[in-house]
Structure formats: C-alpha cells, structure tokens
Amino acid sequence: MNTFLKLINRKDQNFQHWYSEVVFSAKLIEHYDISGLYILRPSAVEIWETLQAFFDSEIKKMNVENCYFPMFVLDSHLKKEEAHNSGFKQEVAWVTKSGQSDLEAHLALRPSSETIMYPYYSKWIRGHRDLPLKLNQWCNAVRWVVGDPTPFIRSREFLWQEGHGAFATEDEAHAEALEILELYRRIYEEYLAVPVIKGTKSEMETFGGAIYTNTVEAFIPNTGCGIQGATTHCLGQKFAEKFEVKFEDKKGEKAMVWQNSWGYSTRTIGAMVMVHGDDKGLVLPPKVASTQVIVIPVPYKDVDTQGIYDTCKATVNMLCEAKIRAELDSRDSYSPEKKYSEWEMKGVPLRIEIRPMDLENKQVCVVRRDNGAKIHIANADLVEEIRKFLNNIQQNMFDVAKQKRDECIQVIHTWEEFKEALNQRKMILAPWCDEKDVELDVKRKTENEMGPAKTLCSPFDQPELPEGTKCFKSGKPAKKWTYWGRSY
C-alpha cells in the first residue's frame, strides 16, 4: 500500500481543487462546521506571525501605535458614510439577539473599523498638537461573502491589521499612504517571494468612502486572475466631516483632519500558496518557513545507526546555534521516503539526508524544495553553505514567479485583442480613457462562469503613452495605461 502523501489534483489541471487540497493536506487549515470559516493551524499562524513581526516593527518606526477597538459597530455609525456603508452592505453580519431577547440596537460585526474608531478620533483630537494620530490594530474582521468561499482568499472571517491615520495636511496623508504601500510590497516580494505591481484602483474599485485606493496587485498565472494583495486608502476629509473630526490649527481656526486607512490580511498566505505551490504541495520561501531545514537520518541495516542519529542531532544543533530554523525527524515508525513526501507537502525549503556513506565522507546530502536539486556539502562548510542555499532559494522563488507573471502580461490596443488575451488568461495592459461607463461595459460583455474582467490597477510606473493613443474599448483619447483581467 502506498502510504506517501500525494495530491489527487494537479495544479495545471484543476487549480481550485488543487489549492483546497494543498492548504488542507499541508496542515495550514482545518475545515470548520460553518461554511466560509476556517481553523488556522499552527503552521499558518507561524507564517502570519513572521509577517506581523516585520510589519509591526516597521510601522513603529513611523510612530504608529497599536491599539484595540471592540468588534461591534452601531447600525447608525455604519450608515453615516453612505459610500462606505454601500460597499459592505451585502457582506455585513449582524447580532440581533442576546439569549432570547431582541437587542434594542442591532450590532454589526466589524467589516472594517472606520466607523468604529472615528467617533473616538473626534473625541481625542482637539488641536494641532494632537496630530498626527496614527493607530493600528491587529484583529479579525467579518465579511459574510456571497458565493463559494476560498480559504485565505475569501473567507467570512479573517485576520488582518488595519491602520488609521489622521493628519493636519493633505500632503502628510498622501505620504503615509505611499510609505505603507511600500511596506506591503516588501511583505510580498521580500518575504513571500510574490511579485506585485504598485498602482491605483479605478473609481469603481476604490474602497467605499475613499478618495482613492492604492494597491499592490499579484497575479496567478494558472488561473489568469489578479489578486488584490493589500491596500492603502486616502479617505480625504469625507469621514472627518461625517464624524466631526476637527482640530484647531496653528492660526486658531477650525479645520477638518485628513485621513487614511490601510490593511493587509491572511490573504497573503493564500497568494503565496497559489503562486509557489506545486503537485507535491507547498513550497515555502525560507524567510517565512518556521522550519527552514529538516534533517532526516537514512540508516541501513547492519550499519552504525546510532552514529547516524548522533550526527543528525549534532547537525540540527549546529544549525540552530547559527539561527537557522532546523528540525530533526527521528520517527522510527516512518520510512525515510514517507518523511520526504510529508516534508515536501509542508514546503520546507531544504532537506538534509544523512546516510552511512555521508558519515564516512564527512558530508551531508542537501535537497532543495524549490527545484529538487541534490547537493553534497562537507560538514566543515555546512552552516555557511546552508545560509547561501536559503538566500538563493528565496531569490530564485521570486525570480521564477516574476518570470512566469511577466510571461502572462500582454499589451493590447483593441477590443478584439483584449478578448483574445482574456481567453488566454493573460494579465492585460491596455490604454484606457479612465471612464466608469467603459469599465462597466467591459464587465458586462466579459461576464461568464469565471466572472467578469475588470481593472486591476493603473500602475505607478506608467509606460509611455504616445500622443493620439486611443482607448482600447471606447476609441476615445487614452489617459493612462491600466492592467485588466479577472480577479479573486
């Protein structure tokens, strides 16, 4: 009987089922009794904690302070900013009873905390010396999505951070939005090895109540779908007006604050799995892998078994002392082959195998998870070489992912080219007149079982737009280049 861990589904054949199988088999999640809710297992939380540690440290350098607000919001507060309320209306979950008694006021579970926090910003901000007020909270949010949920990507409860800044000037708000967006890029590219594009959302895709939304957009080549990685929203003075967040400026005059909100969530983990996973399971970038190296003894009959195990323990200790996250798999009831498949499923970046011949030759056999390469390393060079391998794997995973992403980008100029590229699951870069009616028309004419195409973002790094360039759909003068495609 084959006891090795193997996936039933293949990434390039049935991506949706492959993804669900991977996150379950690799023990990132466990299914819960309520549809759309998932248990995050320790391996998923450890990835989240790594990202959290990086981001929390960086925002504290920006003088952002952590806080926590209750997760309930009054109906009256939620409705104060109409565009914001409309954006969440279909996804808000409500608490209406306490025991058998109806609550006098219905309470919404936090879809986002603007309307929870800003009544207190109004209370705390009085003069220019109270600004800027920059708060962040690590918490959960609930959005009761309609349709089929997807673990990490579209779940009905998720973990995230949400930052909320209030400033005396518009320039300060714009500067923070860009600074935070760069941190989001670093999370994806430097930690998760997932390439992203920084840009601005269209009017239709802008966060409810915001003046504009900046985004880092990832892309999944296997499905031809974009994925919104993280966003910063410049709220202008809209919420300040609704919640009366005013201050006395240096001239002694009353003024409205300028505000931002920004957040990233456990969706990051799902994007990482989708981009890097293969038919053996997860492939983890070393920076976020809780176990970077797994050491496996491979004893033969009638050999110095104890010597192999002692060497494995010494190897793990040496790596751990060098701050490399290593672990020993000494389970006697599992064959080496079964251990290989299990740790491959979990995505551990490096596997060290130690056999009798390795003892004799004073070396170890190292196997890379990202490309399967096998290399023998002398014991004397072990720590230095393992560090090099981990760095190389991190960079190689990003380079491979970027190459695959870039191969999917197609520049088009006409509607016929657009339709052909969309059918080929491309990430489409097109000249656009930046009109809402045109985006609506594109969505309407591309609707099918896979969902409609829409704008993903207009990149900050705009290609040259020659004079006279026409919008691919309307034929009107183009104002910008914009990425289009289907999206999660």
TrEMBL record:
It is an enzyme of class 6 (ligase). SUPFAM superfamilies: C-terminal domain of ProRS, Class II aaRS ABD-related, Class II aaRS and biotin synthetases. One of its GO terms (cellular component) is aminoacyl-tRNA synthetase multienzyme complex. One of its GO terms (molecular function) is ATP binding. The keyword Mitochondrion does not apply. It catalyses: tRNA(Pro) + L-proline + ATP = L-prolyl-tRNA(Pro) + AMP + diphosphate. Residues 36-285 form the Aminoacyl-transfer RNA synthetases class-II family profile domain. GO terms for biological process: prolyl-tRNA aminoacylation. Gene3D superfamilies: Anticodon-binding domain, Bira Bifunctional Protein, Domain 2, C-terminal domain of ProRS. Keywords: Aminoacyl-tRNA synthetase, ATP-binding, Ligase, Nucleotide-binding, Protein biosynthesis. InterPro entries: aa-tRNA-synt_IIb (IPR002314), aa-tRNA-synth_II (IPR006195), aa-tRNA-synth_II/BPL/LPL (IPR045864), Anticodon-bd (IPR004154), Anticodon-bd_dom_sf (IPR036621), Pro-tRNA-ligase_IIa (IPR002316), Pro-tRNA-ligase_IIa_arc-type (IPR004499), Pro-tRNA_ligase_II_C (IPR016061). Pfam families: HGTP_anticodon (PF03129), ProRS-C_1 (PF09180), tRNA-synt_2b (PF00587). Its EC number is 6.1.1.15. This is Proline--tRNA ligase. The lineage of its organism: Eukaryota, Viridiplantae, Streptophyta, Embryophyta, Tracheophyta.
